[in-house]
Design brief:
The structure is a homodimer.
Chain A (H helix, E strand, L loop, with lengths): L5 H14 L12 H8 L3 H13 L3 E4 L3 E4 L15 H19 L5 H15 L8 H14 L4 H20 L1 H9 L1 H16 L3 H25 L3 H20 L1
Antiparallel strand pairs in A: 1-2
Helix pairs in contact in A: 1-3, 2-3, 4-6, 4-7, 4-10, 4-11, 5-6, 5-9, 6-7, 7-8, 8-10, 9-10, 10-11
The structure holds a DNA duplex.
Chain lengths: ~250, ~250
DNA sequence: ATTCTTAATTGACTATACCAATTTAGCAAG
DNA sequence: CTTGCTAAATTGGTATAGTCAATTAAGAAT
């Protein structure tokens, strides 16, 4: 532990100050010169520490202004895998179902009201600064959050970010996402109803059904438009997913 | 684009050299002094560039040796949340169970042989360059890999990395992990048997049981040693986990 | 109160120097 | 010829000190 570089130690000290609330997200860090004196190190080490933190998406350094603490929500999260739409949807079907099942028994009325709001936004019945897509993200993330389990929140959030990247790259996925707005509302409502009833098992089923239909839609889309890659992956996995579906 | 920092430009130049194959993964970069001269910048700028790339997991800098290009496979993945041992185990119970259930119908005999080998390594019956802990990681990662789903592989791998970080920080977790070696072998064998039978449902159950016992062990440990934080989180979530367990 | 100018602050970059870890070269012993 | 050790060269790590440019804050002029 003693063989780590100085700038690494400094970075950790800064991180502690951030996490302990001394420097909340959005706030500005003291200047490099101040921090150098405070930590008893050279300015170079502070600089290197801040550069490393910036590379990790924890800070944003503005020339002539200062280093600002970034909110954890917009952390880019390095190293997400490139993942095809089918396998991603499959993974979400499994994991988000468990997320919903775990959330069901302990979800609060406030959170349920929040979810209702997101559904309204998605259907366009309520105007908001959130886009329908962002409301969709918020819907799933909020369920994950109500599990009170940070690992689950991380996983659900990561998969949404993969979806965003995948949607940028692949037309099929985007088309399907756009086209399924009609089904989406009903399915989200079904999930919500299960949560309102605090029915863990129903929540799992509803969430699985939500993504299962998305997979079907992807399959159709991949047949219409000859996206070989998607088609191959889809047919290869179809049987086993439909198999495991029955086992829940 | 012209207002980016120098070290950022240098980092991009280095990245280009890496991606173009001039410096393949595993190779060593020229020294900071050489690169500084080559790029026509100061050594500090090269240093800052390499530190940023290291923070992004593209390089590994070894003191007195040099900066080495990292393979994409062992990128450390930044931005992992700090997660308590209980919630992490809970998440793994849910997600790894689904991973195993999905893998069961399509796992190959080769992969099963691989898993057998990892179990043998963990029990010490076979000597290997892998530590028991690394074999444990390989066991779970291999199951995830056999799902053929990159999103699932990512999630399982991420959670193992969280575990590693958590174990460094929290004694309880580490103690439990060390003590459960005895149960571990039987449970892993049970999982493997389910996979051999291609029994999706049994694989799910076995995997859940594996982590459920770990949670019980954590609960005991947190009572013995008065780790308030763990204790609180555990008791708060215990009921709902045991609840959802029955619903599978 | 508003705008403009100016001074102070802050990050960006360079140059130089020294230290410690690592590697390499060379030499000695077997 | 191989092995093992030592010393020198290489390499990253840190510090100090200074210059420059972007930004901000303070003050003056309107």
């Amino acid at each position: 532990m003693a063989d780590q570089r100085l700038y690494h130690k400094v970075a950790n000290q800064i991180l502690e100050l951030i996490d302990s609330g001394v420097f909340p997200p959005g706030s500005r860090l003291p200047g490099e010169r101040d921090l150098a004196e405070k930590f008893g190190v050279s300015r170079v080490s502070v600089r290197e520490a801040e550069i490393a933190l910036q590379a990790q998406g924890r800070l944003e350094i503005k020339v002539g202004s200062g280093a600002y603490v970034l909110d954890g929500s917009d952390m880019p999260l390095n190293g997400l895998p490139k993942v095809g739409p089918f396998e991603l949807t499959e993974a979400r079907a499994l994991f988000e179902a468990e997320s919903a099942a775990l959330a069901a028994p302990i979800i609060t009325d406030e959170t349920i009201a929040e979810l209702e709001n997101y559904i309204a936004i998605m259907s366009g019945k309520v105007e908001s600064e959130l886009s329908p897509d962002e409301a969709d993200a918020a819907f799933h993330n909020t369920i994950a959050r109500s599990t009170n389990n940070h690992a689950i929140m991380f996983v659900i959030d990561s998969m949404w970010k993969m979806r965003t990247e995948a949607a940028q790259l692949q037309r099929v996925y985007k088309n399907v996402c756009d086209k399924d707005s009609s089904h989406r509302e009903d399915e989200h409502q079904a999930i919500l109803n299960a949560l309102i009833n605090r029915d863990s098992s129903a929540a799992r089923r509803a969430m699985r059904a939500h993504f299962t239909r998305m997979i079907e839609a992807l399959l159709e889309a991949s047949e219409e438009e000859a996206y070989q890659e998607v088609k191959r992956k889809a047919s290869e996995s179809r049987s086993r997913f439909l198999l495991t579906k029955q086992l829940s």
